[in-house]
Amino acid sequence: MQRVNERFVERLPLVPDRPAYAYLVTFAFCVIALALRMAAGPLLPSGYPFVTFFPAVILASFLFGVRPGICAALLCGFLSWYFFIPPHGQLVLNPAVAVAMLFYTGVVTIDITLIHFMQRANYNLAVERERNRVLAENRELLFHELQHRVSNNLQVVAAMLSLQQRHLDHDIARRALEDASARVALVGRISRALYDPSGAGQDMRAFLSTLSADILDASGRQDVAVAVEAPDGLKLDSHVTVPLALIVAESVSNAIEHGLPHRAGTIRILIDQDADALTLRIADDGEGVAPDFQIGREHSSLGLRIAQALASQLGGRFTLTPAPDRGAVATLTLPARVAR
């Protein structure tokens, strides 16, 4: 309803290209005002010759602009003077009549002037709103194009790395390029999935569910199930979501490769948020890790070291510890100021 009213006001004054209609309706307003004043005559005390004519002037000015408003003011002034200011029907000018007409002229002049400036301000506001809408559309289009090109470029880099690793004979070098290609491709997919020019972000539960499904498809493991638990409607800024998604990807890949290399299992991704911190846990029921395991040692994987570096960039902490019963738990803790 409010938007309908805004659209109507933005169209004022009406029918600017058809002034004949405007003057015709203005004349009708004046006639209606005269009829109402005559009908209300027995109910009104002595005086009040302009009481029904002011609304006619205001309506004409509001709907059709300054010129029809001035026309209504002149016609209503004549009708009120001729029919309702004594002596009736003679248009006699005396000091009392002059004061009354000056009062009427001052009131309608103020009304028409205020309505005119209001309409000009509203017109300028409508023009500015339209300009902002066009700029917003252009910004969204450019942002979408930039995001598309960045994602495509990352996919090209990943393809080049994948092509290069096929020409290597050294197994370690080939595996390093393969891992690098997979990570670059993952960053491209994450960037494309997180595209939102409004900055509103995506629902984390749906996003992580899609991400984990992509990781499982890439690994070719059909015997591993991934469950995601997150607060309803949880959304994070993209500067947090991208590294968090990379940490989830590295942790899930590590659980598949090292925790569940030869058997079926389950991986659970849990996000908890409170006033103090945001906590992400990736728990599996695989082979687990040693009680004294520490990320950063020579035998820890590159993916875990990358996850630890990303957590440090966010001002958080990433750990990998044995689960209470079986498997391992990767934990990312971020301060609340970063997660907001």
Strand and helix layout:
Elements: H1 2-10, H2 19-40, H3 53-64, H4 66-84, H5 95-165, H6 171-193, H7 204-219, E1 224-229, H8 238-259, E2 265-273, E3 277-284, H9 302-313, E4 317-322, E5 328-335, H10 336-339
Parallel strand pairs: 1-2
Antiparallel strand pairs: 2-3, 3-5, 4-5
Helix pairs in contact: 2-3, 2-4, 3-4, 3-5, 4-5, 5-6, 6-8, 7-8, 8-9
What does this structure look like?
This protein is of the alpha+beta class. It folds into two domains: 2-134, no CATH class; 200-340, 2-Layer Sandwich (Heat Shock Protein 90). Helices cover 62% and strands 11% of the residues. It is built from ten helices and five strands; from the N terminus they run αααααααβαββαββα. It has helices spanning 2-10, 19-40, 53-64, 66-84, 95-165, 171-193, 204-219, 238-259, 302-313, 336-339; strands at residues 224-229, 265-273, 277-284, 317-322, 328-335. A five-stranded mixed beta sheet has the order 1-2-3-5-4. β4 (317-322) and β5 form a beta hairpin. The radius of gyration is 37 Å and the shape is rod-shaped. The two termini are 34 Å apart. 28% of the residues are buried. It is a multi-pass membrane protein. This is histidine kinase. It comes from Sphingobium olei.
Silhouette? rod-shaped
Q: Supply the CATH class of the largest domain.
A: Alpha Beta
Remind me, CATH topology of the largest domain? Heat Shock Protein 90
The number of distinct β-strands equals 5
Keywords: ATP-binding, Kinase, Membrane, Nucleotide-binding, Phosphoprotein, Transferase, Transmembrane, Transmembrane helix, Two-component regulatory system
Organism: Sphingobium olei
Protein name: histidine kinase
EC number: 2.7.13.3
